[in-house]
Amino acid sequence: MSSEVKLTRSLEDYLEAVYILQVEKGEARMKDLAARLNVKASSANEAVEKLAERNLVKHERYGTITLTKEGEDLAKRIYNRHRILLKFLHEVLGVELDTAEEDSCALEHSISEETLNKLVKFIERLG
Questions:
Q1: Potential cystine with 100: which of 73, 89, 122, 123 (Cβ 3.0-4.6 Å)?
Q2: Nearest to 83 by CA among 2, 4, 20, 10
Q3: Where are the domains of the chain?
Q4: What is the rounded CA–CA span in Å between residue 32 and residue 54?
Q5: What are phi and psi of 66, to 5 degrees?
Q6: DSSP result, the chain
Q7: How far apart are CA 55 and CA 53, in angstroms?
Q8: Which burial class, exposed, middle or buried, applies to 34 when counting CB atoms under 10 A from its CB (0-12, 13-18, 19+)?
Q9: If you classify domain 76-126 with CATH, what class do you get?
Q10: Phi, psi (5° rounding) for residue 92?
Q11: Pairing of strands 57-59, 28-29
């Protein structure tokens, strides 16, 4: 995994949002991405350009944003971390859903694979 692309928290959020839009709507468009992340279209465009430079997405002007294989793999890992943390915070610890969502989003960017794997095993033991 040493060849894994390192992204800022913001770019990870964009990549995850593209993945979620593709799953939910079948495609990701710039206006939907900007709306989902509550940012201006110009900010979303700039982030997508950075992701494209890293070969994580493909995007044609006024077209859909498509994850590359590498982008999809990374987006799935980010999304999975988010889901695991959300489940732990909300279902195990009883944190209110909105707070758990916000906290899991913050934690997903910094949690180590070791800690995440132990958290998964802990949740599994609970049933």
A1: 89
A2: 20
A3: 9-74, 76-126
A4: 22
A5: -120, 135
A6: -TTPPP--HHHHHHHHHHHHHHHHHSSEEHHHHHHHHT--HHHHHHHHHHHHHTTSEEE-TTSEEEE-HHHHHHHHHHHHHHHHHHHIIIIIS---HHHHHHHHHHHTTT--HHHHHHHHHHHHHH-
A7: 5
A8: buried
A9: mainly alpha
A10: -90, -50
A11: unpaired
pLDDT tens by residue, the chain, 127 residues: 334 568 999 999 999 999 999 999 999 999 999 999 999 999 999 999 999 999 999 998 888 999 999 999 999 999 999 999 999 999 999 999 999 999 999 998 889 989 999 999 998 898 7
Q: What does the alpha-carbon distance between residue 21 and residue 48 come to, in Å, rounded to a whole number?
A: 14
Are 68 and 58 in contact by the 8 Å Cβ rule? The answer is yes
Please check whether residue 64 is in contact with residue 27, taking contact to mean a CB–CB distance below 8 angstroms.
yes
